[in-house]
Amino acid sequence: MHTGTGNGLVASRHRRATKATSIAAAAVVTMSLALLTGCGKATGYHDATGGESGSPTPSPSPSPSVNPSYGTLYLDDEECAAPEGKGSETYREVPCDAPEATAQVTLRLESGNALPFSETVCARNTDFVIDVPISLAALEHTRPTGEGYACMRNLKPPHPGDPGGGGGPRIEIGDCVHSDPKKGDAVTEVACRTKGRKDGATHKIIEILKDRILGGFSDPCDYKADAVFTENPIFDSDKLKNDRVLCGKKL
Asked: How far apart are CA 102 and CA 33, in angstroms?
């Protein structure tokens, strides 16, 4: 960094001359300083002893963080993110108009966990969720600490969180599922466009019932559906009562 002036360089050369020449040079420099000071232009001048008059030399800028934040909170509401690499689950914060930006925060929580996705408070049309401590730990090469997550919506299609998209926090009306008779009445959400593929969509959900008792001869879907499903019968404490019953129409 160039912090001196032309006069400072002249003074340095004169210091290496003979004694008589040095005295003359010092007089010249003194006169120059007086003239410059009178005009208010001596700021930033280094004298022959290495001292400095005027404002101090600016300190070098700190190195940029591996994950620079563009706000007061990492991935705050309406901020955008980009994956660290193709298929990566680690995301860094970037400006929303950056070419690498892929998704925007719709809701930021500083407590709670990202998984299971169905237990978050993300909106129905959320495409995916970012585990904040894990992402930060990967970016900063530290161990994950704390909680918190960010509900994300892709800036461009596809949108798995939309009805039939194959994602989102929970199965909703309009979503499609894959049913495997070998796994009982539990189903897996998949995109409707996967119909006909192996492990693809077999049914579309047309109605969702809550807190229904299964069993007996009654049909909870009133015979409007081709199949009746439950989401997690394995973890349900009451095998007959399920929080949500899914009425599915065969594709």
From this structure: 58
Highest mean pLDDT among 41-50, 133-142, 188-197, 204-213: 188-197
Burial call 37-54: b when 16+ CB within 10 Å, e when fewer: eeeeebeebbeeeeeeee
Nearest by Cα to 77 from 123, 26, 11, 15: 123
The answer to whether the CB of 224 falls within 8 A of the CB of 247 is yes
- Residue 244: beta bridge partners? 210
The alpha carbon of residue 75 and the mean position of all alpha carbons in its chain are separated, in whole angstroms, by 5
Give the whole-angstrom CA distance, residue 237 versus residue 234. 8
Question: Quick one: CA torsion of 214, 220, 225, 227, rounded to 10 degrees?
Answer: 0
Q: Around Cβ 216, how many Cβ atoms within 10 Å?
A: 8
- DSSP code of residue 233: G
Least confident range of 21-25, 54-58, 74-78, 187-191: 21-25
- Torsions phi, psi for 74 (to 5 deg): -65, 125
Q: Are 124 and 172 in contact (CB under 8 A)?
A: yes
For the stretch 143-148, contacts whose Cβ atoms lie closer than 8 Å and that sit 24 or more positions apart, written own/partner, are 147/110, 147/111, 147/112, 147/113, 148/108, 148/109, 148/110, 148/111, 148/112
Coil/strand/helix, residue 23: helix
- Read off the pTM: 0.67
